[in-house]
Amino acid sequence: DPVWRASGTVDHGTVELLVERAREASYVDDHAAFVDTLIGALDRCDDPVDRGSLLLALAVTRQGLLDPSIAAHDCDRALDALRDSDRPGQAAFAAACTAVMRHRAGDTDGAIDVAVEALVLRAAAPDDHDSTRATNALSILFAEFGAFTVAHELSTAALCGRVTESMLDPIAYTASYITVEAAHRGVVLDLDLMRQACALAHRPTASEASRTALGPAMTYELALLGGDVSDLPEPELHVERAAPLAPRFAAWYRLVLASREQDEGRHDEALVHLDHALPPLVAAHDHLRAERALAIRRDCRGATGDLVGALDDSIELSYHLQRIHVTHVEGLAAQVAQRADLELARIDLHEKADVLADAVATDALTGVRSRRWLELMLADISRGEGSATVVMLDLDHFKEINDRYGHILGDEVLRRVGRIMKEASPGDDTIARYGGEEFVAVLPGASRAAAESFAGRVRQSLRDENWDELADGLDVRISAGLATGRLPAIRAVMAAADRALFEAKRRGRDRVVAA
Predict the structure, then answer these.
(1) Which helix (H) or strand (E) is 435 found in, with range?
(2) Which of 155, 205, 421, 454 has its CA 20 to 30 A from that of 10?
(3) Distance (Å, whole) CA 439 – CA 451
(4) What one-character DSSP code corresponds to residue 28?
(5) What confidence tens digit (pLDDT) does each residue in 418-442 have?
(6) 338 vs 510 pLDDT, higher one
């Protein structure tokens, strides 16, 4: 038993060791004891990130089972633990594995969603071992979707990425899987990647399963595709070597044996292997290899004279391909609909943001621009060149209006003044409420004469307004001061206009004074 069983704790180094062992355990059928070890370690692990790593190791170990939902559940739990960790590469690998397992479990929509997350996480991850593992897992997913060219590019990137010794077996197996299944669907890929993969599977430090079963089967499939196997060991294929493998890998090994028997004209023997291979391939949702097995069985039955059986296989293969096609199209349609919903939500959010921004930039009572907007506008135009004229305006005796008629009527006066100023202004964004009953107009490029004309229009409109409908004897007048200067000194120009306004008040109000 590991030391941690006695101590009752699991340290990070032990977790890393178990993760490394998981890759080798995933290929063999007799991994129950190792699964128990992982579960025991989980029970004694408190660190959330290490727990995520152990759950991911559990998923990798059980990926060869015929029920992909078991590994999918492990992956989901691992992703939940790692998603918000400080290890984006490991989270990307968890997301990529989750996508693969969800797809194999029949959840195509969920697989696509998590695959997008995996790609985002991978883009944010450093160039490390976990990022390479994520790339390799994503290559499997793209191959299962039928995007073999993309899968091949990712697989090549994984083989050239940062790898540890234990990562080489799964990366080599994946490269072979992609190349072979692409070829059987008419997609011609460079065989050099597969030849490298076969060489890796035969290396002295490879796992026993890789050297004795996976590597020879990969080499034989490379030879069937016409690849160069001259510098590789002669592939020795024996049915006994399938027994120690995990069910999913054992089924593939029997498929390779069937391919050999068919190639050498022993169709009855091929059918025996296919009878063993097909049920687990279908159960494991290994659609690509199940299709290949059905096609081989169809041809072998036809060669032995079993035309009815060959027809049944043709029909089943047709139905199988149709189901997969429909599933993928439905998944794509769901993603299109989801993207549409997201786009609508984005547009709605932007519209709400625009409304909110406009509300912040507008004075709620008068309808002219707010003091906040004015400050931002001044900061912006002060960086420009040219000149501007500033007009400061202040209602005369407004305190007396509030005292005599009340603040409710005073607010209505301010509303009307705001409307009059907007109507008199040369543009929508030139008037702002500076505070209380004081307003400011900033007119970039305007001459003093134009500014005086604007102030005159405001004063005349106030005289023409029917104030009696608000209150008998109500009369609203305004004083204004203006100044002209360069944009970089706009605040100094405002100060000059404010002094001119003070002078207008001093001279008796209801007038315009220029600085």
Answers:
(1) strand 431-435
(2) 205
(3) 14
(4) B
(5) 999 998 887 655 799 998 899 999 9
(6) 510
Tokens 């004081």 correspond to: 438
What average pLDDT does the structure give for the chain? 86
- Token pair belonging to 235: 């592939």
Q: For 62-128, where are the alpha helices, taking DSSP H only? A: 68-82, 88-104, 108-124
Nearest-angstrom CA–CA distance, 201 and 213: 9
Distance (Å, whole) CA 306 – CA 170: 39
Task: Tell me the CA distances in angstroms from 439 to 172, 349, 458, one per residue in order.
Answer: 74, 32, 12
pLDDT above 70: residue 339: no
For residue 417, how many C-alpha atoms fall within 13 Å in the half-sphere facing its CB?
28
Q: Which residues contact 466 (CB under 8 A, 6 or more apart)?
A: none
SS3 393: strand
According to DSSP, the residues that pair with 443 across neighbouring strands are 389
Cβ–Cβ under 8 Å, residues 263 and 296: no
**For residue 394, which phi and psi values (nearest 5 degrees)?**
-145, 130
Rounded Cα distance, 187 and 190, in Å:
10
pLDDT attached to residue 360: 65
> What's the pLDDT band for 3 if we cut at 50, 70, 90?
very low
Q: Are 15 and 41 in contact (CB under 8 A)?
A: yes
Report CA torsion sign: 358, 360, 365, 367: negative
What are the Cα distances from residue 39, in Å, to 48, 183, 231? 15, 40, 42
